[in-house]
Specification:
Belongs to the Mrp/NBP35 ATP-binding proteins family. Helices cover about 35% and strands about 20% of the residues. The chain has helices at about 5-15, 85-95, 115-125, 155-165, 185, 225-240, 260-265, 280-290, 325-335, 350-360, 375-389; strands spanning about 35-40, 65-75, 100-110, 140-145, 170-175, 195, 200, 205, 210, 250-255, 270-275, 300-305, 310-315, 315-320, 345. The strands form four sheets. The chain has an eight-stranded mixed β-sheet with strand order 8-9-5-10-4-11-12-15, with helices on both faces. Strands 1-2-3 form a three-stranded mixed β-sheet, with helices on one face. A two-stranded antiparallel ribbon has the order 6-7. α4 (about 155-165) packs across α11 (about 375-389), α6 crosses α7 (about 260-265) and α8 packs parallel to α9. The radius of gyration is 26 Å and the shape is elongated.
């Protein structure tokens, strides 16, 4: 090994420190995924002097020396679905080396069981269980609640999460509606989370990191959990899933004021409640009760969202479900809680919201994944911006 090759290997390693594993959010060097880097001169024959003055590496003076670079990459799991993404980033890092012509050869294997176990242990020790309760956490946590089912709470959660992601926020979502999970379908997810030696990697869809009981085998069966077991499911979603440090975490709660709402308040005291209702009194009266849970647990109610506020037909807004429900909830919660609980959005009733959502793409997004600039896309963008203020 020459001084030149040692310099190249060190420079490439430094460049690889900027290649980030998409799931773990850490550089491949920090994770120990780069097992070896070997640079060998590609100019194997000695220069004879007949072709002109040569450099020490055997190349002509007016050209860069050439090297073959072999990089041994150890992925965390065999058959990692992000293998191609990682190798493409590594190729890009090697190509950025300015002082020589480098030909990369990437050899991909997987970590040994012991090495993976040590990595997972280090990650868990660093995180120390629930990562969203540590001091200085930057994540804004919004728990989306409703008093009754059928008001579009999950649809609001899915489209709001997709909006945050499209706006550039690192976004995560937990389907905390254990009995009536629906986020996997709304995001078109049909795969299970990767199990990294006991630590789960959330499934990413439309830019949102997701976890749901609906992603696991047998999830189509009725779930009859109560009390401690229900609370444990939330603790597992928080502590046993590698979330990184997202900017936004949304929780799709079960309707009403049951065990899961109380568990969220206990596990995530910094969460902010967003109450979803529809205009009619039968929904808004029940929605108030879901907000009043804040009188019993340390959780602030951030605001109210009125869904299905109107249906636009030939330029006219038809109030199919009446009107005023969101404002009634806002005023009653403001009076009961002693602080302002604003009506943050009134969302129209759009058949496309259901049709597109059931096809596996949040309706606020175009087929290419960009945020729509009309109608529902504009409404959700305004809601997301208000929440982040």
């Amino acid at each position: 090994m020459t001084a030149d090759t040692r310099h190249i290997e060190a420079a490439i390693y430094e460049r690889l420190s900027r290649v980030i594993d998409p799931e773990l959010g850490r550089s491949v060097t920090d994770l120990g995924m780069i097992a070896a880097i070997n640079a060998v001169s590609a100019d194997a024959t000695d220069a004879t002097g007949e072709t002109g003055e040569t450099s020490a590496a055997g190349a002509t003076a007016d050209s860069q020396p050439a090297y073959d670079v072999t990089i041994q990459v150890e992925l965390t799991v065999p058959g990692c679905p992000l293998s191609e993404t990682i190798t493409n980033q590594i190729n890009g890092a090697v190509a950025s080396y300015p002082d020589a012509r480098l030909t990369p050869h990437i050899e991909v294997t997987s970590m040994s069981h012991d090495k993976l176990a040590d990595l997972v242990a280090d990650l868990k020790a660093e995180r120390k269980q629930n990562p969203f309760n540590k001091p200085g956490i930057k994540t804004r946590i919004f728990a989306i609640a409703s008093g009754k089912g059928g008001v579009g709470k999950s649809s609001v959660t899915a489209n709001l999460a997709a909006t945050f992601a499209a706006l550039g926020y690192d976004t995560a979502a937990i389907d905390a509606d254990i009995y009536g999970f629906s986020l996997p379908k709304l995001f078109g997810v049909h795969t299970q989370p990767t199990n990294l030696n006991g630590m789960l990697m959330p499934v990413t869809a439309w830019g949102v990191k997701l976890i749901s009981i609906g992603m696991f085998a047998g999830a189509d069966r009725a779930i009859l959990w109560r009390g401690p077991r229900l609370q444990r499911s939330l603790e597992q979603f928080l502590a046993d899933v590698w979330w990184g440090e997202p900017d936004v975490l949304l929780l799709d709660l079960a309707p009403g004021t049951g065990d899961m709402a109380i568990s969220v308040a206990q596990a995530l005291p910094n969460a902010e409640l967003v109450v979803v209702t529809t205009p009619q009194p039968s929904a808004s009266d029940v929605a108030v009760r879901s907000g009043l849970v804040a009188l019993q647990v340390p959780m602030k109610v951030r605001g109210v969202v009125e869904n299905m506020s109107w249906y636009e037909h030939k330029g006219e807004k038809l109030r199919i479900f009446g009107e005023g429900g969101g404002q009634r909830v806002s005023e009653q919660l403001t009076d009961a809680l002693g602080y302002d609980v604003p009506l943050m959005a009134q969302l129209p009733l759009e058949p496309e919201l259901r049709e597109t959502g059931e096809s596996g793409r949040p309706a606020v997004l175009t087929p290419e994944g960009a945020l729509r600039t009309d109608g529902i896309g504009r409404e959700f963008r305004t809601l997301a911006e208000r929440l982040m203020r």
